[in-house]
Automatic annotation (TrEMBL):
Belongs to the TRAP transporter small permease family. Pfam families: DctQ. It is found in: Cell inner membrane. It comes from Phaeobacter porticola. GO terms for molecular function: transmembrane transporter activity. Keywords: Cell inner membrane, Cell membrane, Membrane, Plasmid, Transmembrane, Transmembrane helix, Transport. GO terms for biological process: C4-dicarboxylate transport. GO terms for cellular component: plasma membrane. InterPro entries: DctQ (IPR055348), TRAP_DctQ (IPR007387). The lineage of its organism: Bacteria, Pseudomonadati, Pseudomonadota, Alphaproteobacteria, Rhodobacterales. The complex comprises the extracytoplasmic solute receptor protein and the two transmembrane proteins. Residues 25-170 form the Tripartite ATP-independent periplasmic transporters DctQ component domain. This is TRAP transporter small permease protein. It is a multi-pass membrane protein.
Length: 177
């Protein structure tokens, strides 16, 4: 079940990342066109940057599922099969630990419990924590940055899901051999 969910989540991440890649291309072309016509739309630059950030994080999470990250295998290729499998399990454990740390950093950054304790009142939350995450607006779009940064929660979830899937798969393979 975990493998199926991880596979479906990765498929959705890649579909969203591909859509965002197309959006980035369209936004850049729009930017070039409007600048050449003499009426630049400054919000287009910012939106293209945010779309690229979302695209990158979604694709990176999917890459963890597919184990498509760049790797130097000169050491593992020279090791006996059993040790190489053990090293693979260790790498998957480190990736899973990184995923958990990413979620923890999001928790510390967004402070959702403190925000709820403040009654979801932004000013009360800011006064208690000196954290302005829920009120800071983007430069040209005027959207609260918390919506842009919410990709970190999605990234953390995908990383945890794919990391756990890879770790359990590696451990199962190690036990079978």
């Amino acid at each position: 079940m975990l493998q199926t969910f991880s596979r479906q989540w990765a498929r959705a991440e890649l579909a969203c990342a591909a859509t965002l890649a197309a959006a980035v291309t369209a936004l850049i072309l729009l930017n070039v066109l409007t600048r050449n016509l003499g009426f630049a739309l400054f919000w287009v630059d910012e939106l293209a940057i945010y779309a690229m950030i979302w695209m990158t994080l979604l694709a990176a999470s999917a890459a963890v599922h597919h184990k498509d990250a760049v790797a130097v295998t000169i050491v593992t290729d020279a090791l006996p099969q059993a040790i190489a499998r053990m090293l693979s399990c260790l790498v998957d454990a480190v990736v899973f630990a990184l995923a958990l740390l990413t979620a923890w950093f999001c928790w510390r950054w967004f402070l959702p419990l403190e925000f709820a304790r403040a009654g979801f009142d932004v000013e009360t939350f800011q006064g208690a924590t000196f954290n302005f995450i829920y009120s800071e607006a983007t430069s040209t779009l005027g959207v609260r940055k918390v919506w842009v940064w919410s990709i970190m929660w999605i990234f953390a979830f995908g990383l945890i899901l794919h990391g756990l899937n890879n770790l359990t798969t590696s451990v199962d393979r190690k036990e079978q051999s």
